[in-house]
Structure formats: structure tokens, C-alpha cells
Design brief:
heterodimer; A: about 550 residues; Pyruvate-ferredoxin Oxidoreductase, domain 3; Rossmann fold; 8-stranded mixed beta sheet; 7-stranded mixed beta sheet; about 40% helix; B: 8-stranded mixed beta sheet; 8 helices
């Protein structure tokens, strides 16, 4: 059983505050929660919403239409109503209106407390009552949230929540609420999970330029910088950011940057530099629907090809694409480890859907567990940086040691010095690319979900994980045999393993589900001869997939 | 010519000011007793940017225009290293102009030695940001019309903690300026080095500079910003060389809480 609540309003109306209050309360009740955010590129006005889905089983995606629609801004009512169904309950912030529950949250708060600031508590109380929950279940959360502001504030908030519940009372009873099932009360977003993953893995230097949807991770890292001893610098531009990451890693400090498509476009020369200097640069790339500025605050899986191929020249790199906050946390660490083991750039692909999605999970480990940088501690005096080795990985020392660290963006010999000896060039290019062989052997296996054998295989990557998994559940409930194969690493590919994974399902129909218009992953799989004939399920309207949508489109 | 540490094939033309800059740098390092293992020479792309290959030090020869951000992060990662950028006017003033502005704002403790020959050498003779108006090149066929980039004035206005100029044709002066910059512990140091290019700049020759460069008077107070700006704008019969401007500001690295207990790299808890 699950319910979806859409909290909508203009930017600046407090959607985030109310949403966070509700999410915290639901998680505290042991419910599974899954929230997504849909917002316009502005700070005031417009129309934004947050969907909070709650259930008594694990939730992996949003729903297309809400069961309860909370409208903070009456002006947007008609637009939002088009996106409801006959069972949607409406809670309007405003004067009495036929066909919906109408409460003026601010006025009620003011009447009770003399101030409008607790309007959110009134709204939360009303939401709880309308869903069929006792408003008293909000009290402990309000207590925890406002305790540091004093008991008066806590009490006033509780009175406001009770008032909201009273006003909604006549309309209670139409919804059957899911019951708590002991789901963890730790709630985390994709952005935060990446930041925590990086901080605990030992990233000590972060340089970035703000850009949606990557800013939240940048901000998170700035906020934990003192706790983990990290230097976080806002660079003058993305070119500076990536070159700073190259400088910091050259000097031996695990370092990363966060950016989005347009910023990554500015970085690609620096990514190539990391490939040439063999530096473990780690880049979180938050994709968004381009081209150019595109839809800055919306979601899309539009930069897979750009992440895999963007940059001049040819060099080894790995590209990871997590699907949930937990995967994001774990793959950040895996990505940093790969970068350091192979001394080459690694990209973590995210998007607005993953960055902003919040869900409960068992708490992510906050203890520092710094990764192995694979540093040669005591290099001999005749040490050279780019020794040609069978696996292409040269022993890495640091500047300041007994050896000289010579790194050049020009083609160079083993000693790092510039060369135009074309035989050396061939040897060095082969050495650098040999790293891909080891990286291919360590490629993460795609995750299988669904029955052992299936008629229809849905292939997806990155943030489409949750919606696709839900779709597989829905399809099999409808007696349609379907399975999912999710790639959380999209480059390099282990062609043999990927083909075997696909073949093992025995599927006669294969659809690649991805949030772009041209089927970027499908074309990559076909180019690498992982896939033959396949269908595409593209999406490029700036919104995330939902399980329902994928299931519906798979049936057509 | 300078003794080279490596049996490297030098890519500079005979008579290039780069040789004199390299020699002065080597002498300044030697006289100051700087441990070359703790020295990182950072450069971008251009003829000047090849300098780090012709001496002995740690080398980060990165991208065109981008040595300053790389050097900034090297200094943050290990502030016990002496980090010196040696690159050209195209690199620092042209392609990387934005980084110069913001590195000065940060007051990161790196030294930037700009080989300023007022021309693009490696790409064969196009105008640089500092080319004089009227300078005819294969691209600026009717002569340069853009006003030259005033690096010193820009640096002063931005509050650069150390601003100096020297001339490659006066190695003693150059070494003294390099020494002063290397001894500057108060943050970012910019040293603009006038450097003749015998191949592509037939206007601003050794003789042309010799006739014009004039050491700043002993009475000049580098902490006097107005006086410094006056000197910075002088570019005519008289071109001042010397320490033009200084100011006291906290360094970037001294304000980072994460560096309070030692270097970032030294305190890495993992292997």
C-alpha cells in the first residue's frame, strides 16, 4: 500500500520546509518514503512541487498523479488539477472552495500564535489528518525540530498542527494510510550521499563552480569540510576547477569537482590533461536536458556519450552511473578507488532526479575510511614517473619526496619530459591505454531484477534504476514476463559479461529505457556489440520516469 | 649560455631571452639554497613554458593558460612546497587572464614569473596581449589596434601583495627581482619579465628595451599605491623596472582551517 502527496507552490513559499517536515515525520513512523522535486529555474514565484510518496514496502520511484494535492498557491490550482485523478484529495491554502479542503494556513497560524511563520505546522497537521494519521504523531518530530528554539516554540507548533488536523477533520476517512513497517528513519538525498561518500573516502580538496544540479553536493562538502578536514574552494570557472583538481592530485591529495553539462564542456581539456598526466581526477557530472542551458532545473540522462567520449585524444577513463542514494554513496568510493588504482580520470554521472531524490535507507557510514592512493612512499633517486609496465600503471610518487616528479601535457618519455620521438609516443600511448584492460576486468556487473527468464528485458542505467525496477514489479503483477538489467557502470563495458547477462534472461524483446531522445546507451551497447536489435524507450520532457509510465509504455 | 641539467634538446632560438631567464632563475635558486626537491615549476604552453624541462625540479607542465589554477592547488595540497609558475604573456595574460585576477584575489602563495616578449613565439609571430599598438604580424596585418594589457596596473588594483618588473637583458636585476619574489612570504607574487624575442619581435629588441628600462628610484615606496600605479602605467621613453608594489594581506593558505595542523597531503590518513 502506498500514497503520494504533492506539495506545490511558488518558489519561496516554503515547500521545502513543509516537505522536509512531512518526510521526517513519515520516516520517523517507520514508513518507506521516496521524494522527488520538480522546480523552475527561479528563486521567487513560478510553480514548484515536491512529491512525497509513502508506503509499507520499498519505494523506488515517484507516481504520476498524487493521492493528496497540497496547493499553497491558489493561482496554480487549475494547472495542478489537470495532473490529478478522480481520487485525488485536494488541500488548498485559501478560502473555502467547493470540492476541496480549504484552509488558510497562514491566517490560522497567525490567529493562534500571532505570527504566520508556523503556517507549515498547520498544513502538516491537516495533511496528517487527511491521510488518516493522528496528528499527535507529528509532535515528537516538532519537538525535535524546534527544541533548540525553546519549549514555547515547540508548543506553538504543536497547537498549529492540532488546529490543522481539526480543520481537516470533516474530510477525514477517504484514504487508507499505509502503516509503518520499521523502515529506517535515516533519510538521505543522492547529492548528500555522494558528498558523504567522497568525504569518507578521503577527498581532501574540492574545487567547483556552482551549477544545477551539482551544487547540492558541492554545498554538502563545504558544510562537512571542517568535520573531515577538506579544503573546498569555489573556483572562478570550471576550467580553473578541473585544473585545480589536476594540481591537487599531482601533489597527492584525493580531489574532486562537481559540475553539470555546460561546466563539463569547459572542463574537457582538463579531463584530457588528467588522462595525459595520469592523475586520479574525480568528476561528478550532473546531467541535465540541454543543449546549451536547456532546462537547468529539470532532469535528463543526456550526457552519457559526452562523459564517455568528451575530451580530445584517447585515454582510459571510467564512468559510473548510480541509481539510488545508497548506490551513489558506494559508487563515489568505488570511482575514487578506480581513479587512484589506474591513475586516470573517473566520472560519476548523476542528474536532478537522483540528486534531489530522498529516500530512507540504513544509515550511511560516516566514519572516515580513506582509500589507498597507491603511492610509492620512498622512491629511489633514479625514479621516473611514467615507467612502462605490463598493466600500464606506473609507480606513482609525490613531489617533495627524494625523486623529481615531472609531468607534461606534451607527449613525454618515461621521465616525464617532452618528447617528439614517435616510437616513444607509440609506447606511451599503448601504455596509457593498457590500463583499460584492467579496468574492463573490474567492471561492475549489471544488476538483474525480476524473474530468471523473461519475455521482455528492460535495460537501463543510472537514475532510471528505481522507476524501471518498479515497472518490472508492476508488469509481472499484470502477468507480463519482464526483467530489468541496470548498468551502474557505463564505461568501460565488459562486453562478454554484458552479453551473457542479457542472454541469460532469454528475452525475445529488449528495450533500452533512458532519459534522452537519441538512445545514447542503446547506441553505445550496439556499437560495442553488446546488443543487436532493440527498442528504445526515450524520455526528454525534463521529468523523471515513473514505474507506472515505463510499465504502460512497455505494454504498448 | 646556462649550464643545463639535462641533455635536453633546447627548443629556444639562439639569442632568446628565455636562456637569460633560466640562468637567473637557476642562480636565484642556488643562492637562496632552495631545495629543488621541494620546488615545483609549473607552466602552461608556449616557448617560455618549456623552461621547467631545462632545469632540475618537480615539473607540472599543464595546459595553455592554466598553470595558475594547477599551481594554486599544488600549494594548497602541500604548502611546504615552493611553487613557481614560469610561463609566457600569452599563457598568463591572454588565455589564462581570468585565473590571474582570481589568484591575486586569493593571495595564494605562489610566484608567477611571466616571460613577456610581447609576441606569440610558438605559434609564429601573432600579437600577444602586451603587443604595442601598430605592431604588424601575420594576423594583425594592419598593425595591432587593441590597447595593451597592463598587467602591473591590473595586479596593483586587485591588491596583489608583490608586483615587480624586470628585464631579461639585465640578468643581475632579474636575479634580484626573482630572489625578492621567492623571499616574499606574504602571498601571491607577480614578476613581469621583459624578454626580447629575436625571431618574431623585431621592434622590442634588446636595444629597444635597454634604451628605456630604468630601475625604480630608491625613493619609491612600494607600499604607496598611487605612486605604484603611476609607475605601472609608464610605458614610453621610460619603462620602470624594480619592485613596483607591495601590500600586506593574509595568504590564502594561512586562512584555511584544514591546513592549520600541517599540510593537506601530509595529514592524509590513508596510504
Amino acid at each position: 500500500m502506498d500514497l503520494s502527496i504533492r506539495v506545490s507552490g511558488a518558489a519561496g513559499q516554503g515547500i521545502g520546509t513543509l516537505g522536509s517536515l512531512l518526510t521526517g515525520a513519515f520516516a520517523g513512523m517507520g514508513l518507506h518514503v521516496f521524494t522527488t522535486e520538480t522546480y523552475m529555474s527561479r528563486i521567487r514565484g513560478g510553480l514548484n512541487w515536491m512529491d512525497i510518496r509513502i508506503g509499507d514496502y520499498e519505494l523506488l520511484s515517484g507516481k504520476e498523479t498524487p493521492d493528496l494535492l497540497v496547493v499553497l498557491d491558489p493561482q496554480s490550482l487549475s494547472f495542478l488539477r489537470e495532473r490529478t485523478n478522480e481520487w485525488t484529495l485536494l488541500l488548498l491554502n485559501g478560502p473555502p472552495t467547493v470540492g476541496m479542503v480549504a484552509i488558510d494556513f497562514a491566517q490560522e497560524a497567525k490567529a493562534l500564535t500571532g505570527e504566520v511563520v508556523m503556517a507549515n505546522a498547520v498544513a502538516a497537521g491537516a495533511v496528517f489528518a487527511l491521510l488518516g494519521y493522528h496528528a499527535a504523531r507529528l509532535h515528537s518530530l516538532l519537538d525535535a525540530r524546534f527544541a533548540r528554539k525553546g519549549q514555547d516554540v515547540v508548543d506553538a507548533n504543536i497547537r498549529c498542527a492540532q488546529r490543522g488536523a481539526e480543520l481537516a477533520e470533516p474530510y477525514v476517512g477517504t484514504k487508507l494510510p499505509p502503516k509503518g513497517v520499521g523502515a529506517p528513519d535515516f533519510v538521505c538525498s543522492g547529492s548528500e550521499a555522494i558528498g558523504l561518500g567522497a568525504a569518507t573516502a578521503g577527498v581532501k580538496f574540492v574545487a567547483a563552480y556552482p551549477m544545477t544540479p551539482s551544487t547540492a553536493t558541492f554545498t554538502y562538502l563545504a558544510n562537512v569540510a571542517d568535520e573531515f578536514g577538506i579544503v573546498v574552494e569555489q573556483a572562478e570557472d570550471e576550467i580553473a576547477a578541473i585544473n585545480m583538481v589536476c594540481g591537487a592530485t599531482y601533489a597527492g591529495v584525493p580531489a574532486m569537482t562537481t559540475t553539470s553539462g555546460g561546466g563539463f564542456a569547459l572542463m574537457v581539456e582538463g579531463v584530457s590533461l588528467a588522462g595525459m598526466l595520469e592523475l586520479p581526477a574525480f568528476i561528478m557530472l550532473g546531467q541535465r536536458p540541454g543543449p546549451a542551458t536547456g532546462l537547468p532545473t529539470r532532469t535528463g540522462q543526456t550526457e552519457l556519450r559526452f562523459a564517455v567520449h568528451g575530451s580530445h585524444g584517447e585515454f582510459a577513463r571510467a564512468v559510473y552511473a548510480p541509481g539510488t542514494p545508497r548506490q551513489a554513496y558506494e559508487l563515489t568510493r568505488v570511482g575514487l578507488e578506480t581513479a587512484h588504482r589506474y591513475q586516470t580520470p573517473v566520472i560519476l554521472l548523476t542528474d536532478q532526479f537522483l540528486a534531489d531524490m530522498r529516500t530512507n535507507t540504513t544509515p550511511l557510514d560516516r566514519a572516515p575510511r580513506p582509500i589507498d592512493r597507491h603511492i610509492l612512499a620512498d622512491p629511489p633517486p633514479d625514479y621516473v614517473r611514467y615507467t612502462i609496465t605490463p598493466d600500464g600503471v606506473s609507480p606513482r610518487a609525490l613531489p617533495g619526496s627524494a625523486a623529481y616528479l615531472v609531468a607534461d601535457s606534451d607527449e613525454h618519455g618515461e621521465d616525464g619530459h617532452i618528447t617528439e620521438d614517435l616510437n616513444v609516443r607509440v609506447q606511451m600511448q599503448e601504455k596509457r591505454l593498457r590500463k583499460l584492460e584492467g579496468m574492463r576486468r573490474e567492471v561492475l556487473a549489471p544488476e538483474r531484477y525480476g524473474p530468471e527468464r523473461a519475455e521482455h528485458l528492460l535495460i537501463c542505467w543510472g537514475s532510471t534504476y528505481g522507476p524501471c525496477r518498479e515497472a518490472v514489479g508492476l508488469l509481472n503483477q499484470r502477468d507480463i514476463s519482464a526483467a530489468m538489467l541496470h548498468f551502474s557502470q557505463v564505461w568501460p563495458l565488459n562486453v562478454g559479461a554484458a552479453r551473457a547477462a542479457i542472454a541469460s534472461t532469454g528475452a525475445r524483446r529488449i528495450t533500452v529505457v533512458e532519459g534522452n531522445a537519441t538512445g545514447q546507451f542503446a547506441s553505445l551497447l550496439r556499437e560495442e556489440q553488446v546488443l543487436g536489435e532493440c527498442e528504445l524507450m526515450p524520455k526528454y520532457d525534463g521529468l523523471p520516469f515513473t514505474g507506472e509510465e515505463i510499465a504502460r509504455r512497455a505494454q504498448s | 649560455m646556462s649550464k643545463l641539467y639535462f641533455d635536453a634538446e633546447i627548443a629556444w632560438c639562439p639569442g632568446c631571452g628565455d636562456f637569460l631567464i633560466l640562468r637567473s632563475l637557476d642562480r636565484a635558486i642556488a643562492e637562496l639554497g632552495i631545495d629543488r626537491h621541494k620546488l615545483v615549476l609549473v607552466s602552461g604552453i608556449g616557448q617560455a613554458a618549456k623552461l621547467p624541462h631545462y632545469t632540475q625540479a618537480n615539473v607540472f607542465n599543464g595546459l595553455h593558460g592554466r598553470p595558475i589554477p594547477a599551481a594554486t592547488a599544488i600549494k594548497v595540497a602541500n604548502h611546504e612546497l615552493e611553487v613557481v609558475v614560469t610561463s609566457g604573456d600569452g599563457d598568463i595574460y591572454g588565455e589564462g587572464g581570468n585565473h590571474l585576477i582570481h589568484a591575486i584575489r586569493r593571495n595564494i602563495g605562489i610566484k608567477v614569473f611571466v616571460h613577456n616578449n610581447q609576441v606569440y613565439g610558438l605559434t609564429k609571430g601573432q600579437a600577444s596581449p602586451t603587443s604595442d599598438p601598430g605592431f604588424v604580424t601575420p594576423v594583425q596585418t594592419h598593425g595591432v589596434v587593441n590597447q595593451p594589457y597592463s598587467a602591473l596596473a591590473l595586479a596593483i588594483v586587485q591588491g596583489c601583495s608583490f608586483v615587480a618588473r624586470s628585464f631579461a637583458g639585465d640578468p643581475k636585476h632579474l636575479q634580484a627581482m626573482m630572489t625578492a619574489a621567492l623571499q616574499h612570504t606574504g602571498g601571491f607574487a607577480l614578476l613581469d619579465i621583459l624578454q626580447p624575442c629575436p625571431t618574431y619581435n623585431r621592434v622590442n629588441t634588446y636595444q629597444w628595451y635597454r634604451e628605456r628600462v630604468k630601475p625604480t628610484p630608491d625613493t619609491h615606496d612600494p607600499f604607496d599605491r598611487a605612486a605604484a600605479l603611476d609607475l605601472a602605467f609608464k610605458w614610453s621613453d621610460e619603462i620602470p623596472i624594480g619592485i613596483i608594489y607591495r601590500c600586506d594581506r593574509p595568504t590564502f593558505e594561512s586562512q584555511l582551517p584544514a591546513l592549520a595542523k600541517g599540510t593537506l597531503v601530509g595529514r592524509y590518513a590513508g596510504t
